[in-house]
Amino acid sequence: MPLRGEVQVSGAKNSALPLLFATLLADGISEIHNIPELRDINTAVKLLSELGAETAREADSVRVDARQIQSIEASYDLVKTMRASVLVLGPLLARCGHARVSLPGGCAIGARPINLHLKGLEALGATITLDHGYVEATVDTLRGAKIYFDIPTVGGTENLLMAASLAEGETVLENAAREPEIVQLAEALNSMGAEIEGAGTAIIRIRGVEKLQPLNVQVIPDRIEAGTFMIAAAITGGDVLVHGAVQKHQEALISKMIEAGVKIAPEADGLRVIGPEKLAPVDIRTSVFPGFPTDMQAQFMALMTRAAGTSRISETVFENRFMHVCELQRMGADIQIDGHSAIIRGTEHLTGAPVMATDLRASASLILAGLAAENTTEVSRIYHLDRGYEKIEKKLAALGARIWREQE
Ligand code: EPZ
Fold this sequence. Notes:
By secondary structure, this protein is an alpha/beta fold. It has helices at about 15-20, 40-50, 75-80, 90-95, 115-125, 155-165, 180-190, 225-235, 250-260, 295-305, 325-330, 360-370, 390-395, and strands at about 5-10, 30-35, 55-60, 60-65, 75, 100, 125-130, 135-140, 145-150, 170-175, 195, 205, 215-220, 240-245, 265, 270-275, 285, 310-315, 335-340, 340-345, 355, 380. The chain is built from 13 helices and 22 strands. The strands form six sheets. It has a four-stranded mixed sheet. Strands 3-4-2-13 form a four-stranded mixed sheet, covered by helices on one side. The two termini are about 25 Å apart.
């Protein structure tokens, strides 16, 4: 049934995580506001406490007192539940000259190595050894260097931004990631006293400084959560005002949704999305920002299962990010995988079914398909969903969706 009304986007998970770890760079008390209530945030706060920082959560803010760092180790248990824990490498090296972080290992959507993070830190003078599944990094003094990323890695850019901020001399990151979360991290580091320019472009220059002051920052809205609600409006033929959706963070998604026949109008603090009677098929190819975000691929595929025609979706960022396909097929979607592409023949009739979430964004795509399917869809293993979406069933129910959470 068509979703109608207004929804508020929460703070961006993928910005809050690096910002939380950036607090380790200053021996003081930092505050981060507009932090979403998510499992991954809880894991990051737990890791900060294990390193010796004092943490406190008040409403949508987290305070971090990083004056005492007592440990430099991120354990396998923590890193395996949240691979973004590897983002403590840069800050711990810069602050303590030593870090011991479990290799994250693979994850559902791909191998996700961190070789580019390690290569960059070695370029700054760190000695990196691997033993028993742990990365051991040590350095006397980090020294600026020119670093070229073979792939514009988001996490690699973030680790190097944080490490280079306290290195001696200038660092240049070439082929750096350009996501809005990178821009926020650079601005936050500059507010701490760092000297960074070029964030948001492929070349970022960092002039190292002696010391950084504590951080006080408001997390930007989550562009992937916003995009997910935009798709929810489109797939149900609804009319939803998404408060917090930022047009310049969503250009690729917006242009593809307009191509599919969706109306998207900028409003004071968000975007109004009106779904069409009939969706047109649209081909997409994921790529790094500002290209079409891989984190919106599964959600867009759900939309295309309802289009009047055939569309092709190519996933170029991760090697195994089509696990939602077989679950969508159980709901009657006609999708064929051909290597890194999926061919979707749209259908009027998706049918509800018991389906299983396999990863964070796949879970979102199953919910989106469920909103448009006939009768009831039951999504299991929704712990994946809770990693990246704050109260999604409440937010969707407020828009008229018939969705509820049952104890598993
Ligand atoms: C970040 O992951 C996001 N996570 C991911 O969001 C997002 O999908 C991804 O960026 C791409 O946009 C956070 O920000 C916490 P990458 P990250 O390093 O940093 C390869 C979600 O759903 N690579 O840009 O791990 C890697 O294997 C999550 O919220 C190397 O080969 O992504 C991948 O194929 C999922 N070597 C590609 O680059 C490296 O050293 C992009 O990875 C690093 C990366």
